[in-house]
Each structure stands twice: as C-alpha cells, then as structure tokens.
Design brief:
By secondary structure, the chain is an alpha+beta fold. It has four helices and four strands. The protein folds into two domains: about 70 residues, no CATH class; about 70 residues, no CATH class. It is about 45% helix and about 20% strand. A four-stranded mixed sheet has the order 3-2-1-4, covered by helices on one side. It comes from Dipteronia sinensis. This is RNase H type-1 domain-containing protein.
Length: about 170
C-alpha cells in the first residue's frame, strides 16, 4: 500500500522522525559522554515541542479528509484545510414532457487508470427509466466521458427514446 502525504502531513511526519532521531542521539550522547541519565519525559517533551513548532510554521495544507484531521488532532495540532475553489449550487431539473434526461458520470483513481462509467435515464416525472454501468479499463478521462455518452445515446436509441436530453 502506497502512502501519499499532503504538504502539512509531510512536514509533520518529517519533523517528527527527525526530532525522534535527534532525541535518541542526544540521550545516547548524554549517557555515554556525560554519564547522565536523561528522563524519557524530557526527551518526549523535546520531540513534542519541535513538532508543534514545525506545525506553527504554517507550511502547506492538509487534504480535506478525516484521516489527516484525526492524526493532527491526536497530537493536539490544528489542521490547515485547503481553500475551496468555487462552490456552485446545482439543481437537477426533470426534462420536458415526452423527453428522457440522461445523466452520465465516470470514476477513476488517477489518469490514465482503470475506469468505469455509468448513466441514468429519467422521464419528465423524475422516474428512473433505465441505467447502465460498465468497467472500461486503462483509459484517460476524456475517453471515458466519450464512451459514457456513446453508450447512453446507443441505449436510448435501442429503447426507442428519440427525444433525449444529455
């Protein structure tokens, strides 16, 4: 399983690992060269202070997901969520009397990657008249959208729906 961290989490984990290594090194050197035993709580407070200081630098943003938020909250740190680009209100409208509305969509993890597409057919009373879902394989997003549109038009033609709103 591969992990990909956003900027804030990457800085957080790098700083944490760095400070743990430095603290262990500091404790070891105190033990060997100074013959002093360093309290574990002191070493932990060094790590904690450095990590919270790194978070205050304000480098990067977290992904807007619960996992990142829970990790940061577990360490008592505040998340810096990404700013929303644009929020648009979308209202679904049924088609006119005698028409069929087709809503298509596609999904994937990255581009190009294994993809799939689906479509739903609605009548003027918002009843579902049919639907489809197909796995496609390794293609780009544009190809997936074209395939979904082609499949929707083909399905509408076979069902003898001549007045469609895509």
């Amino acid at each position: 399983m591969a992990f990909s961290f956003n900027d804030q989490m990457r800085v957080f984990w790098k700083m944490t690992i760095h400070e743990v290594v430095l603290s262990v090194w500091f404790i070891r050197n105190q033990w060997i060269f100074e013959s002093k035993a360093v309290d574990f709580r002191f070493a932990l407070s060094l790590v904690w202070h450095a990590v919270s200081g790194a978070n205050r630098l304000g480098i990067g943003c977290m992904r807007n997901c619960v996992d990142d938020l829970l990790i940061l909250r577990c360490f008592g740190l505040r998340g810096r969520p990404t700013k929303t680009q644009v929020i648009k209100s979308v209202i679904w409208l049924p088609p006119a009397l005698g028409w069929i509305k087709i809503n298509t969509d596609s999904a994937a993890l990255s581009s190009p990657s294994t993809r799939g597409c689906e479509g739903v057919f609605h009548n003027c009373r918002s009843f579902v008249k049919g639907c489809f879902s197909i796995p496609i394989g390794q293609v780009f997003a544009f190809q997936t959208e074209l395939l979904a549109t082609s499949k929707a038009i083909n399905s509408a033609w076979k069902s003898r729906w001549r007045r469609i709103w895509l």
